[in-house]
TrEMBL record:
<keyword id="KW-0479">Metal-binding</keyword>
<dbReference type="InterPro" id="IPR015867">
    <property type="entry name" value="N-reg_PII/ATP_PRibTrfase_C"/>
</dbReference>
<dbReference type="InterPro" id="IPR036069">
    <property type="entry name" value="DUF34/NIF3_sf"/>
</dbReference>
<dbReference type="InterPro" id="IPR002678">
    <property type="entry name" value="DUF34/NIF3"/>
</dbReference>
<dbReference type="Pfam" id="PF01784">
    <property type="entry name" value="DUF34_NIF3"/>
</dbReference>
<dbReference type="InterPro" id="IPR017221">
    <property type="entry name" value="DUF34/NIF3_bac"/>
</dbReference>
<comment type="similarity">
    <text>Belongs to the GTP cyclohydrolase I type 2/NIF3 family.</text>
</comment>
<protein>
    <recommendedName>
        <fullName>GTP cyclohydrolase 1 type 2 homolog</fullName>
    </recommendedName>
</protein>
Length: 349
């Protein structure tokens, strides 16, 4: 849940976290019909993209579709789990799946998040440095983009004087000591802080570990909003929209007027993405594919890019495939079923 937005409500929403699960139904939304489908298919858990409870519930009287859905899920003993903006924000998440469908290459997060990384500097006797570094890497530290096991080392002399109550690994109580040490520096995502520090302490030979921890301002290029990439071959605008219709299985596309330029560099954002129009222009995208664009927001294109609103449901429906891939890799012994209930509330005439 480390990467969900503050307004979001991802995680287990209905159900007992300790209950055994053998069958999972995957869906974009949860409705009463979806809960019934799960029950009919003997699925103990629904995994959805959109949380059925987004704002707090004060009553469960069945007054609206959210309350009715939750009541039915509880009655039928079907648990509900949602991965929403936390799945939107990761490098291999919702926007990567859209990019894959469209055929984009050289993908990058459009707006990387900041203040999501920390740097650990820890001092260790020279002969123990390889062991400590390995432990830190195994805990998830040292991953920078497509490079893993990253670290920086520098040599120096550590000095200390153990007290009479200390239990020193090196040196004698009450006497000054100097040791040739290595300073190891690694970067890691902040949500791994506990596991990285625990690995450090478990692998370190000293009774008291000398270390520094700093939160970084660096962009975290694996986490953030939207995605941008390139088509292998530039397409005229009309051909691009036709390609978009075919690859995303669309009935209709709302778009800005053509500006007589070929489309190659494409930015995408699943769901409501008007907040990234400015970023798409700043990254010199030829087109921006998203949903829920309001009337006045189309003017923000300013003849600099083609905005294509493909619909909220349509932009995220392939998230079901993404869930399937993730869950199949992690839980090979659980039966997975893609939901067949169409939950799109919008129809086209």
């Amino acid at each position: 849940m480390a990467y969900q937005e503050s307004y979001d409500n991802a995680g287990l929403i209905v159900g007992d976290a300790n209950k055994e699960v053998k069958n999972i139904l995957i869906t974009l939304d949860v409705t009463k019909a979806v809960v019934q489908e799960a029950k009919n298919k003997n699925c103990e858990l629904i995994v959805a993209h959109h949380p059925i409870i987004f704002k707090g519930l004060k009553k469960l009287t069945g007054a609206n579709y959210v309350e009715r859905t939750v009541i039915k899920a509880i009655r039928e003993e079907v648990a509900i789990y949602a991965a929403h903006t936390n799945l939107d924000n990761v490098k291999h998440g919702v926007n990567a799946k859209i990019s894959e469908k469209i055929g984009l290459q050289n993908l990058q997060i459009l707006v990387p998040k900041q203040q999501q990384l920390a740097k650990l500097s820890v001092f260790v006797p020279e002969e123990k440095a390889p062991e400590l570094k390995k432990a830190l890497h195994n805990a998830g530290a040292g991953q920078i983009g497509e490079y893993k096991d990253c670290a920086f080392e520098s040599k120096g002399t550590g000095s200390f004087s153990p007290s009479e109550k200390a239990n020193p690994t090196i040196g004698t109580k009450g006497k000054p000591e100097e040791v040739q040490e290595i300073k190891i520096e690694v970067i890691f995502p902040l949500h791994l802080k506990h596991s990285v520090l625990e690995a450090m302490r478990n692998a370190h030979p000293y009774e008291e570990v000398a270390y520094y921890l700093h939160q970084l301002e660096n962009d975290y290029t694996d986490v953030g909003s939207g995605m941008i990439g390139e088509l292998a071959i530039p397409l005229p605008e009309e051909d691009f929209l036709r390609h978009l219709k075919e690859t995303m299985n669309l009935q209709v596309i709302k778009h800005t007027h053509f500006i007589n330029k070929k489309i190659q560099r494409v930015a995408v954002c699943g769901g409501s993405g008007a907040f990234l129009i400015k970023a798409a222009k700043a990254h010199k995208a030829d087109a921006y594919v998203s949903a829920d664009i309001k009337y006045h927001e189309y003017f923000d294109a300013e003849d600099k890019l083609l905005i294509a609103d493909i619909g909220h449901f349509e932009s995220e429906i392939f998230t079901n495939e993404l869930f399937y891939e993730i869950l199949r890799e992690k839980f090979a012994n659980i039966a997975l079923q893609l939901g067949e209930t169409v939950t799109n509330p919008i129809k086209y005439y």
